[in-house]
Design brief:
Elements (H helix, E strand, L loop, with lengths): L9 H15 L4 E6 L6 H14 L3 E6 L10 H12 L3 H7 L8 H5 L8 H19 L2 E6 L6 H11 L7 E7 L8 H8 L4 E4 L6 H12 L5 H11 L3 H13 L9 H9 L1 H13 L1 H13 L5 H8 L3 H13 L13 H9 L3 H17 L4 H8 L8 H16 L3 H13 L7 H14 L5 H10 L4 H15 L4 H14 L3 H17 L4 H13 L5 H14 L3 H12 L3 H4 L7 H11 L3 H18 L2 H18 L2 H18 L5 H14 L3 H8 L12 H14 L3 H18 L4 H4 L1 H11 L3 H18 L2 H15 L4 H11 L5 H17 L3 H17 L3 H13 L17 H11 L4 H8 L3 H15 L7 H5 L7
Parallel strand pairs: 1-4, 1-5, 2-3, 3-4
Helix pairs in contact: 1-2, 6-7, 7-8, 9-10, 9-11, 10-12, 13-17, 14-15, 14-16, 14-17, 14-18, 18-19, 19-20, 20-21, 21-22, 22-23, 22-24, 23-24, 24-25, 25-26, 26-28, 27-28, 28-29, 28-31, 29-31, 31-32, 31-33, 32-33, 33-34, 33-35, 34-35, 34-47, 35-36, 35-37, 36-37, 37-38, 38-40, 40-41, 40-42, 41-42, ...
Pfam family, one: GerE
Keywords: ATP-binding, Nucleotide-binding
GO biological process, one term: regulation of DNA-templated transcription
Length: about 950
């Protein structure tokens, strides 16, 4: 690098130095250099290298080009592949251990194996970088990001949101408003929490004079420098080009020569390059064009062959281009992307497309990667080449398997233009349509319909119908249902059949528009001679919510989960297994419910499926509300809620908001609960989820003395449940909650009627927890003369795992005994109530019980200001996983955080819990065997 490269760049270099020093200290970041071509971005990126090496940092670099846009993860491969290839087999295996193994597909050009390949590969690459950075700080430099493939930029954005706790610095350069740039992802990268953008400005006259002096061999006159500033706008590259052209024209930088700079500067870089090429002769023009097409990573032999010149002539032309400062030393790359762009712009379009076709053919013949070959077919003239279609199709499948959906769409769209042979057209159309749907492009469904109309058959037709069904379910449920049923009947793939069956069942269950078909399907499933796991699971769910005896639900669940097929489906978007956990909860089997949740979560963790993990967080929230710790439940569901909001998953948000609000209310955080759930129903309206969201919202509103609004919610819950045949008290808790609200207002007759309904259903079913809860509510409806009723509720709940229900019943009994003047008996009921409330970590109930105990003459123990209650949601979840025996790496991978974050959370948790090692975590957290 010349000493003039960083003139007038003190601010930028100081920022880069600070960012590097922070990264070396473990506080990584992203620095983006944005500006027009020639402003000096590359020089600034290059300046990071020497300083980074002084800190013993590993510096990895990549430079994107226009050819990279169709090469999925091409820039990532430039960054990492050479380093990985240099490692021993053992070292490579260690780097790809754990979650990083999901990135292996990028380097072996194979399917990732993940149901969510994009997220799986991105998280795998992030862990790979984190593993690399464990040995020494890491600097990733990427020049010309505006030309990078979308998948690579998406990875850098993904990494950028997690880099602040890694010894990793990402430095990139880009031009603003560049046509065809991945603008949306670049904007997200620049907006990341650890990102900062530098905008190098125009050079001042002192710097311009220094550059001109270097090129002219002497100090230029001030008037000459001023004219140069006006002609170039202070752009460093343009100043350099102007200086060289001035020297070539015989100028010496005199004041009298200043006027001539206007004419030279007006030519622009493209015209200057074109003129200089002509002076070097036709062979230089031919080689320059071949180099521009082949790309700077192409071997010189490829450029020679592409030029069509004799080897000696081609090599002489390369030497001439290097001597003319058009090619960099070595002859493989242009000195600046603007020079390449000028060469491309001066090449006739037909010749340019021919060169790309010839380059693709040569690469194909020497066995180059199909992704690399396809990048040239993208720029070649469509000509009906079967080779082009084959390469584009293969590259698209690789890109899709790696999660680079946008790139795959571009490749298949180009294959369609070639066009493919008539027999292959339906298949290409179908795969393009599926990918366009995944990328939320507007023509995906249209392509799939066209493929089916063109004769698509076999499993390809099945997948097309399935893809259409998955996308149409919200806009045209009936069409979606019909397509899914057709695909399910036709497929020979057991895994796809199970997924389609789950989709059909979930569509019927979740969407109210299918009410009639839902009942018929459930009836048929219940009567099936050889029912599938999906059928058994949904029949179990409906049975539990209708008030069936627990033994019936548990037997159906046992048969549904035999063989593990339901849990294996966690990554396919199927939530049937997760829905079944609610059936087990309604059957009041805490152990079986926790076991199924744990099995599903282990599979999700093994496969790195973030979206699927959100369902588990919701279900653990309910499990802990009923059987465990409401603080842990709030922590789990809140983590899930924050994640779905960050991912903008509208459909999942209301369900997580509902249970998060219920647990927050039990933690005596009513206002926070209201902020989460007290709003429009959104995507929950008209679905299976709506009654649960309304029930939670009504509960919070009732607590905040908004009885009219709460009553409206509860009555809607009851009506929706009745329409679905949900009679079990705990299905939605609508009757129980409305009865409590009415009893509080003195409307005892209706309150008793509602409570009596649930008492009768629970007695018939034999669910002690639901019966005890209904008896407690009935006692509230009765008013003052209800001690025997509450004693029955307490006795009924004595053997139930529903910890909070037992605590509430004891609280109500103790309060009523105190008001009846039986203070000693009251204390006897309230002390175990406080113990249960404390173990359940319900701040609300603990506060209420303490107040009653004090009123009854008792001395409740003081509240803890530390311990498990003091843990944040993230600290609690980290500590729970550590208590399960997971290593720091495994915890980090499970929670999608860095190991440093895990260490930080564990350190805080140890301090709050008063322990100094993992061995004490389970006891300190009060964990049971199934508590997730």
């Amino acid at each position: 690098m010349s000493e003039t490269s960083l003139l007038d760049r003190d601010r930028e270099t100081a920022t880069l130095h600070r960012a590097l020093e922070a990264a070396v200290a473990g506080r990584g970041g992203v620095v983006l250099l944005e500006g027009p071509a020639g402003i000096g971005k590359t020089a600034l990126i290059d300046a990071v290298g020497p300083l980074a090496r002084e800190h013993d940092a590993l510096v990895l670099g990549a430079r994107a080009s226009e050819l990279d846009r169709g090469f999925a993860f091409g820039v990532v491969l430039q960054l990492l592949e050479q380093t990985l290839d240099s490692l021993s087999a053992d070292a490579r295996e260690q780097l790809f251990a754990g979650a990083a193994g999901r990135a292996i597909a990028v380097f072996e050009h194979a399917a990732s194996g993940d149901a969510d390949p994009e997220y799986g590969v991105l998280s795998g690459l992030a862990w790979l970088v984190a593993n690399l950075a464990e040995e020494r700080p890491l600097v990733l430099r990427v020049d010309d990001l505006h030309w990078a493939d979308v998948a690579s930029v998406r990875f850098l954005e993904f990494l950028g949101r997690r880099v602040d706790e890694l010894p990793v610095l990402v430095v990139g350069s880009m031009r603003p408003n560049e046509p065809d740039a991945p603008a949306a992802v670049l904007t997200e990268l620049a907006a990341g929490p650890a990102a900062q953008t530098l905008l190098p400005g125009a050079l001042g006259e002192h710097a311009i004079g220094a550059i001109l002096g270097r090129e002219l061999g002497g100090e230029p006159a001030p008037a000459f420098v001023t004219a140069a500033r006006v002609a170039t706008g202070g752009n460093p590259l343009l100043v350099t080009v102007l200086g060289r052209e001035s020297a070539a024209s015989g100028l010496r930088g005199l004041e009298a020569e200043a006027q001539q700079l206007t004419e030279i500067g007006s030519r622009g870089v493209a015209r200057i390059v074109e003129r200089r090429l002509r002076t070097l002769g036709p062979d230089a023009v031919t080689v320059a064009r071949a180099t521009a097409v082949a790309g700077e990573r192409a071997p010189v032999d490829d450029v020679v062959a592409l030029s069509g010149l004799a080897p000696d002539a081609a090599h002489r032309a390369v030497d001439a281009l290097v001597a003319a400062a058009m090619l960099a030393p070595g002859g493989r790359a242009f000195v600046h992307p603007l020079v390449r762009s000028a060469v491309v712009a001066s090449t006739p379009r037909g010749e340019l497309m021919r060169l790309h076709r010839d380059c693709a053919t040569r690469l194909r013949e020497r066995g180059a990667r199909q992704t690399e070959v396809a990048s040239h077919w993208l720029a070649a003239q469509p000509s009906g080449s079967a080779d082009a279609v084959a390469d584009l199709y293969a590259a698209a499948r690789i890109a899709a398997a790696e999660g680079a959906t946008e790139t795959a769409v571009e490749l298949l769209a180009r294959a369609l233009e070639e066009p493919p042979p008539a027999a292959d057209r339906p298949r290409v159309l179908a795969e393009l349509g599926e990918l366009e749907l995944r990328a939320q492009r507007p023509h995906g469904a249209e392509r799939l319909h066209e493929a089916l109309a063109a004769g698509l058959d076999g499993e390809d037709a099945v997948r097309a119908r399935a893809a259409l069904a998955f996308v149409l379910v919200h806009n045209d449920p009936q069409a979606a249902f019909t397509l899914a049923e057709q695909a399910r009947a036709q497929t020979a793939d057991p895994a796809l059949r199970l997924r389609l069956e789950a989709f059909v069942a979930e569509a019927l269950i979740f969407v109210d528009a299918f009410a009639g078909q839902r009942d018929a399907w459930l009836e048929a499933a219940a009567a099936a001679v050889d029912p599938s796991p999906v059928m058994l699971a949904h029949v179990a769910v409906q049975a539990s919510m209708a008030g069936a005896p627990p033994r019936q639900t548990l037997e159906l669940a046992r048969r549904a989960t035999a063989g593990g097929a339901l849990v294996d489906d966690v990554g396919q978007g199927g939530s049937t297994w997760n829905l079944l956990t609610h059936a087990l909860r309604f059957a009041e089997d805490a152990e079986a419910c926790g076991r199924l949740l744990t099995d599903g979560e282990n599979e999700i963790r093994r496969r790195g499926l973030q979206i699927a993990s959100l369902f588990v967080n919701q279900s653990w929230g309910y499990w802990h509300r009923d059987f465990g710790s409401v603080a842990t439940g709030a922590a789990r569901s809140r983590l899930g809620l924050d994640a779905v909001r960050a991912l903008d998953l509208d459909v999942t948000t209301p369900a997580l908001a509902a249970i998060t609000a219920e647990n927050l209310l039990l933690l005596d955080r009513a206002q926070e609960a209201a902020e989460i759930v007290d709003g429009p129903l959104g995507a929950a309206e008209g679905t299976f989820v709506e009654p649960f969201v309304r029930s939670a919202r009504g509960l919070v509103r009732a607590h905040l003395r908004r009885g009219v609004d709460a009553e409206e919610d509860f009555r809607h819950v009851i009506a929706a449940g009745d329409a679905r045949g949900w009679r079990a008290p705990f299905a939605t808790r609508g009757r129980l909650r409305l009865a409590e609200l009415l009893a509080m207002r003195g409307e005892r007759d209706e309150a008793l009627e509602l409570a009596d309904h649930d008492v009768a259903v629970a007695r018939a079913a034999g669910t002690p927890g639901a019966l005890g809860a209904a008896l407690r509510v009935r006692a509230r409806a009765l008013g003052g003369d209800a001690i025997e009723q509450l004693q029955e509720a307490v006795e009924t709940l004595a053997g139930s795992p529903l910890r909070m229900e037992r605590a509430w019943a004891l609280h109500d009994l103790g309060a009523l005994l105190r008001r009846s003047g039986k203070r000693s008996d009251a204390r006897a009921a309230l002390r175990p109530a406080l113990d249960l409330a404390t173990r359940a970590e319900s701040t609300l109930l603990s506060r209420l019980v303490r107040a009653e105990l004090e009123a009854a003459g008792g001395r409740p123990r003081r509240e803890l200001l530390s311990g498990a209650e003091a843990l944040t949601p993230s600290e609690r979840r980290t500590a729970e996983l550590a208590a399960e025996g997971l290593s720091n790496r495994e915890i980090a991978e499970a929670l999608w955080v860095t190991r440093k974050t895990v260490e930080h959370h564990l350190g805080h948790a140890y301090g709050k819990l008063g322990i100094n090692s993992r061995s004490g975590l389970a006891d300190a957290l009060g964990l049971t065997a199934a508590a997730g």
